Amino acid sequence: MGIATLVISAALVALSACNSSSTIPPSGGVTDFDSFRNFAQQLQTALVSQDTSFFASRIQEISVVCTGNGEPRGACVNRPPGTVLRGLPSDISGANALQIIPPADYSSTMQTWLASARPDLSDQFGSGAATLYAVATDTSGDADSYLAILSAIYSGRGRAERQALVLRFQIKDGDWLMVAEERAVNPGTPEQWLLGNCKTCHDEWERWTPIALS
Predict the structure, then answer these.
(1) How many CB atoms lie within 10 A of CB 77?
(2) Is 191 contained in some domain?
(3) Would you say the pTM of this structure is higher than 0.85?
(4) Range ranked top by mean pLDDT from 2-16, 18-32, 58-72, 124-138
């Protein structure tokens, strides 16, 4: 089945094509979604300041063992059987081309995405600057996930187009760690994350209201 059946059941069930989600029952009147909203303020600050180390330092690594069965695309292409890849699962919406990004490479990967944003352009979703556009929840996997939906108008491949970058977080030992990302870069895929009406993408969805940063 390629990429060693991706020995990552729980972390990657979430990545296959948009997902679903919800909140953990309240404890003392505060839900995990409330906690994630507070965390999202830190994420917004890191995004505005282009502090890519904030994202790289929160990666929860997974390990993938390549099967050598001629995977046509993705992380294990042209890698011999038994090759072990460690890092963050990164998928492209609808492409079935899972990559594994080592934490050491993630800062530069994120920086490239930020540097390619076009704040001088705009569309129905607003400015082309890289921004935290929405937050959402997902309970489709073995563990509840909380989504930071970033968006920008991206300049590349000879044209400018709207993209969404969906960062998936889970609580691990009381901290928010990033367990996967999905890049909605192909025509028609960003909208499913940015309109908030995709029933198979998420459960709760909220348009993020930017916090004024001093």
Answers:
(1) 14
(2) yes
(3) no
(4) 124-138
Strands 99-101 and 62-65 come out as unpaired
Residue 14 pLDDT more than 50? no
Six token digits for residue 177: 């760690």
In 10 A of CB 13, how many CB atoms? 16
For 45, the domain range is 19-60+88-207
Which residues, at least 6 apart from 168, have a Cβ–Cβ distance to it below 8 Å?
14, 15, 138, 145, 146, 147, 178, 179, 180, 181, 182
Instruction: List, as one string, the DSSP characters of 83-118.
Output: -EEEEEEEEETTT---EEE-HHHHHHHHHHHHHTB-
- CATH number of the domain where residue 117 is located: 3.10.450.50
Strands (E) located in 93-185: 99-101, 122-123, 126-127, 131-138, 145-156, 159-172, 175-184
Calpha distance 81→70 (Å, rounded) = 10
